[in-house]
Amino acid sequence: MLTIYLDSHSNKPYYEQIYRYIRDEIRNGHLACHEKLPSSRGLAQHLNVSRSTVDTAYAQLVAEGYIESFPKRGYFVSQIDELLNMVPVAYPPVSAVEPQEEAFPWDFSPTGADALNFPDTYWRKLSRECINYDDGTIFRSSEPQGDMGLRQELVNYLRQNRGVSCSPDNIIIGAGSQYLMMLLLRLLGKNSRIAMENPAYMPSYYTFQSLEREVIPISVDDHGMSVEELQKSDANIAYVTPSHQYPLGVVMPVSRRTKLLNWANYEPDRYIIEDDYDSEFRYQGRPIPALQGMDQGKKVIYMGSFSKVVSPAVRMSYMVLPDSLMARYREIFKTFPSTVSRLDQAIMTRFMKEGYFERHLNRLRNRYKARHDVLIRELKQFKDRVRLSSINAGSYVVLEWTGEMTEEELLEHARQEGILLYPLSRFCIVPTFRMYPTFLMGFAQLSEEELQQGIGRLRRVWK
Amino acid sequence: MLTIYLDSHSNKPYYEQIYRYIRDEIRNGHLACHEKLPSSRGLAQHLNVSRSTVDTAYAQLVAEGYIESFPKRGYFVSQIDELLNMVPVAYPPVSAVEPQEEAFPWDFSPTGADALNFPDTYWRKLSRECINYDDGTIFRSSEPQGDMGLRQELVNYLRQNRGVSCSPDNIIIGAGSQYLMMLLLRLLGKNSRIAMENPAYMPSYYTFQSLEREVIPISVDDHGMSVEELQKSDANIAYVTPSHQYPLGVVMPVSRRTKLLNWANYEPDRYIIEDDYDSEFRYQGRPIPALQGMDQGKKVIYMGSFSKVVSPAVRMSYMVLPDSLMARYREIFKTFPSTVSRLDQAIMTRFMKEGYFERHLNRLRNRYKARHDVLIRELKQFKDRVRLSSINAGSYVVLEWTGEMTEEELLEHARQEGILLYPLSRFCIVPTFRMYPTFLMGFAQLSEEELQQGIGRLRRVWK
Lengths: 463, 463
Known about the structure:
about 475 residues; elongated; 14 helices
């Protein structure tokens, strides 16, 4: 008979203690295969517990396959003939701790957005209202492409502000650009060869790499991606940033746009991915209209995101697909639900509908313009040792250093002053020749005072 | 001289009206290539507007590449030599309107969850608190694998309730199972061949199909996936539901689990994907422990989701990766940010930490058990014309009809009574032989009364 010590002070009920004891006895071989267990009545008497307690323990052992029950004969230990032969394999230790990064009081990151930009008060207000006055809608599944209300707001916003022409049916809202790119690459097919501007928006390059896609770097001239070079390549997808080339800041003129669209129209499987990164920010004149509007969305896939203009905590990006790809999307991804939180979608819809988004963008544009102007003013004090380009738009300017020092010297001197700089060389898929050391000077996450101080320090060490 | 009609009542400023007029004249060829534009001073006088208005319009036209400025010579229309030659291509019309589905008062869907299950009150309360008393954290980016606090709660929950053994460093929280599967398949490599149980959890089968992965169907016997058949296949990945096989409800006993783990340990690139779908719900005894706990997470990828137990509006699933795959994840996806809303993560963390989740699961389990019991009681009135299996767990039972009628007749009779049924044949990758018509009878989204009424109606027509 099994003698099991039952602990009445344990938080585990008796049946579970019995179950665990027998399970472990079978696991370590003390109870051998085919061995008969005591009847539940007998064990219950022996342990002074109710019979149903033992029955429950036995039922669990049966359910998990440790013992088997044979009518009229009783319970027997199952045949678990193979021992688990775990082969010990050594893997590199997993550590989530990243090496501590040096802290820089002046970080001129070209991609950084100011955390203070977030429309905190309005967002909280709308969140509260969505939660308090909701009829239960925000707790149901979203439409797979994203809530219709939000897609309609996006259509209006994109038409009025970006010249994008589309219907809500062609919009897909997803949890971040990487996710949307995963969907898109599947739609474009395994054998797509992607041409990217070089220098490039590296996050997209890394995404393509992560997803094992071949990338063909194409030079950028004063008009953006070279269509001649693109034509000579065997790429069928061109990834471009026509409104404000990242990182050089070139605007693609209408003549180059036409060439590029004609390239795409030449073959049915050619497409253009227009990443409309940071195009909301122009400090002179009107925004440059999107390429997508020029071809009425036949060949251009338009991509945008709220993470930069609202908050990276709000995981929401969108893409506008041409009808041809939309049909494929409906076919391939028909079982894929939306990846975006319903609550965030509800908040964002009202944020746009009630004018908060536009006001927020205007506020942000004014703040960025002020910072942009301070940065330019301060950098002009370097006189003819610097040349500036990519001005009047976006969240950084491009600085060429025509003075004596090398890129390494400039970086090192800046570092010693607590200034983190981003040389253009880090934004190249393959090295490009530059006459002078070139830096991307981001101004979005530094205040006017910090910009003034930072460039002031730079002037002391850059000669 | 250009004569432009300026509308003082338009909501468009004058500079924009001038810009649009000239742009359209260039586009439609009325202003030819290389043609000289009037000087800004001259045009300003002619139109009776300020010179800066014309300057702004010209600057925009220059920025977009319609005209060029030559110092001392003036503005000229750019060469836009290629006309945009759009090839009209016919695509199937895109329509978001799905064919209207017939409404069934009694829908025995095996996957449906009751919308009323959502812990609405508590979730709203926690949402409000997270929004009101937050220090700004919820508006910053999340850690790429998901917030550490939430991953720690998950570790505790999975250890205590599912016997899963892992560290927070091995957990990845993502926006839905499909997204996580996309990441996982990339980690497992292009040439992975995936074995699936047949009959199968079809949503996962569709996901594999959407992502162009080969699936090898493997038979299911009383102990789950046949490891003999698996060994004969050239699959290197086995996708299984060991705690409660979907759809047959078989629990994989410990002997089969050992065999399966030994199969995986035989080759370094073999892995097991354990989908722990609905394992929270057992109405007798303890939950069946996860397979992952048996090998200490060396070969088993454990996947779970909150969408079924909390709400499909909360887009949150998770996977536990073995160290070997975790190292690969860190390498490949180092630039991929989290896909889950920070606010939802904050709410979920508190939902778990403060015991709401456990109470919610208990409440749900009790409600499902009551429905399960009513369904079984009602179905037993069919006497020996039905055989039930997959009972005491999950959100459906499996019904075999041993009476005279065919599957089509049974379905059609039910349909006429307003009853929607789900035959097992729809859950098969390749047809499997069944002696009798078999149905999955879901009870999660019907009340006890509805279940009683529905089965009552079925008894009138199923003879």
